[in-house]
Amino acid sequence: MQGALTRYRIIAWIVGVCLLALTVGMVLKYGPADDPTVVETVGQLHGFLYMFYLAATFDLSRRVPWPFKRMLLVMLAGTIPFLSFWAERHVSRHWVPEAAPALVE
Amino acid sequence: MKGLWSPAWVARHLLALVLAVGCLVLGWWQYSRAADGNAISWGYMFQWPVFGGFVVFIWWREVQLARRKAAGEPVTAPEPPAPPAPAGRGAPVTLGRPVRVAVGQATGDAPDPELDAYNDYLAWLAAHPGARPSDYPGRITT
């Protein structure tokens, strides 16, 4: 479960950064700058990375396990700029039980 | 299967249907954009159906879970059991990563010459504050 959590956290962070880059790109493209370069670069990448995010979230949710709605909520949280980082922290701190000590005799 | 046609489940079926069809429509829309010369849309055209497929996958899994629950079968595979604890104190301990180890009282019934020697060494160091570890003369056994 801790491995699944680590995978989730890594991909959540990457997708979060990608999403911020995409937001900046949107501003550049549709704003006065009218420059679509960033969107063209990051857009495809973000789409594929988000697939991995969904897979990692699904994997984590069935291992913990979470209620169905919580899984959907976490998946959706990955699509909102800035909120995705907060969601990742909230998930790690409150929605995944801590690792049990490995050695107890 | 009355359980799968309760209002909540009908809402879930509809949601899955809308999302899956929506993804396909968006993929089709990207295809039309790509055909109009927007090259970047070729990639999106392939991505949207994948998301739609994921919706179907999640929907199918939830249906299976509900069926199994209705049939009284266990719904979640338990986490694999922890590896058996090493037998005895001398067994090798392998750890994949740093872990918190519970600090337990050493059991007094089993004599441990190695531990006794180490404690003697520490006691000698404590009794000779200026001494270096290499000055330790060894354990005086009686």
TrEMBL record, chain A:
Its main location: membrane. It is a multi-pass membrane protein. Keywords: Cell membrane, Membrane, Transmembrane, Transmembrane helix. InterPro entries: DUF3817_TM. It is found in: Cell membrane. GO terms for cellular component: plasma membrane. This is Integral membrane protein. It comes from Actinoplanes philippinensis. The lineage of its organism: Bacteria, Bacillati, Actinomycetota, Actinomycetes, Micromonosporales.
UniProtKB/TrEMBL annotation, chain B:
Residues 70-90 are annotated as: Disordered. One of its GO terms (molecular function) is DNA binding. The chain crosses the membrane at residues 44-60. Keywords: DNA-binding, Membrane, Transmembrane, Transmembrane helix. It comes from the Bacteria. The keyword Membrane applies. Residues 77-86 have a biased composition (Pro residues). This is DNA-binding transcriptional regulator of glucitol operon. It comes from Actinoplanes philippinensis. The lineage of its organism: Bacteria, Bacillati, Actinomycetota, Actinomycetes, Micromonosporales.
